[in-house]
Amino acid sequence: MEFTSTLDYFIAAMGILIIVVSFAWNIYEVFLHKAQDSASLEDSKDSAIR
Predict the structure, then answer these.
(1) How far is the C-alpha of 8 from the C-alpha of 16, rounded, in Å?
(2) How big is the CA angle at 9 (ends 12 and 26), to the nearest 5 degrees?
(3) How many CB atoms lie within 10 A of CB 43?
């Protein structure tokens, strides 16, 4: 693939940026967001028992 214009470089950079942001968002969703959901779920179970 040959980059001949500035637009080619821009499209390539945007594609890589989208992939990186998507990957980071998935990591956040799996590890941080789900952990917060399970912690709040356990808290609500605990308060329901009392």
Answers:
(1) 12
(2) 25
(3) 10
Query: What pLDDT is stored for residue 22 in this prediction?
Result: 96
Hunting for tokens 């799996």 — which residue is that? 30
For 9, residues 6+ apart whose C-beta sits below 8 A from its C-beta are: 3
Per-residue pLDDT tens digits for 11-47:
999 999 999 999 999 998 888 777 666 666 555 555 5
**Helix runs in the chain, H state only:** 6-27, 34-49
CA distances from 38 to 7, 9, 34, 41, 45 (A): 45, 43, 6, 5, 10
Q: To which residue do tokens 């329901």 refer?
A: 48
